[in-house]
Amino acid sequence: NYNYQIKTKIISTGWLVKNSFPLFIYTLSNTIFYNIDLLLLKKLDSAYSAGIYSASARIIIPMLIIPTAFIHSVFPKISTDYHNSAASNFVIIKFLFKTLFLFSFALAIVITFKSTELITFIYGSSFSASASSLSVLLWSQVFLFNSFLVINLLVAYNKQSSLYLFSISVLSLNIILNFVLIPQYSFVGAAYAKLFSNFLGFLITSTVL
To answer: How far separated are the first and last CA of the chain, in Å rounded?
Structure first.
């Protein structure tokens, strides 16, 4: 009825690839980052250790909905006000940092003391050994929440090219630490590898910010 037509603008292809490729590398690296420890646990230790670690990891990963909900709620305003109202953005960003730190720190404190009870309640007593790795992974979330915020700020400010440094550095450190720590400390070593890697990510994003 409205005579719509599809047209391809080749001139825009280079711009699209240039601006989306860093996000592609980040997404790919992030996917590997969240799965490489399980693969290495199976190879360097045992399927049992991978199963125990997976139980704690499956509790941690859904917690990313907390920073996602906060950041995506204000992302349009931050992106729009980048040029028009920098002072307004500063207030919002400062609030987000404080709120995410509060949430992640409170979760880490509370669940650390109740990790065994939580694991037993969800999976049963046969998985109680994963409580130790759960506690370590929870503290890694304190650094991850704030890094996640900065990553989204980089996209809002059209600085996503910096994601190369973040994703590749964090993934590389995580793989190296897994090879070093898993043979000595099994699934707890994998959790510490994640903690140190997220801390590196926090340092990188803080410097970029």
So the answer is: 49
Quote the CA–CA distance of 184 and 75 in Å, as a whole number: 42
Contact assessment for residue 150 and residue 76, using Cβ atoms and an 8 Å cutoff: no
Residue type, 159: K
pLDDT tens digits along 139-187: 999 999 888 888 888 877 777 777 777 888 899 999 999 999 999 999 9
DSSP state of 129: G
Count of positions (residues) in the chain: 209
List CB contacts of 191: < 8 A, sequence separation 6 or more: 53, 56, 132, 133, 134, 136, 137, 140
CA torsion 128-131-133-135 (nearest 10°) is 180
Q: How far apart are CA 180 and CA 39, in angstroms?
A: 15
d(CA 63, CA 138): 10
Structure-block tokens of residue 52: 């125990």
| Token digits of residue 7 | 């047209």
Q: Cβ–Cβ contacts within 10 Å for residue 123, how many?
A: 17
Which residues, other chains included, contact 10 with Cβ-Cβ below 8 Å and sequence gap of 6+?
none
- Measured CA to CA in angstroms, residue 61 lies from 14, 135, 138 at distances of 34, 13, 10
Say how far apart CA 160 and CA 22 lie, in whole Å: 6
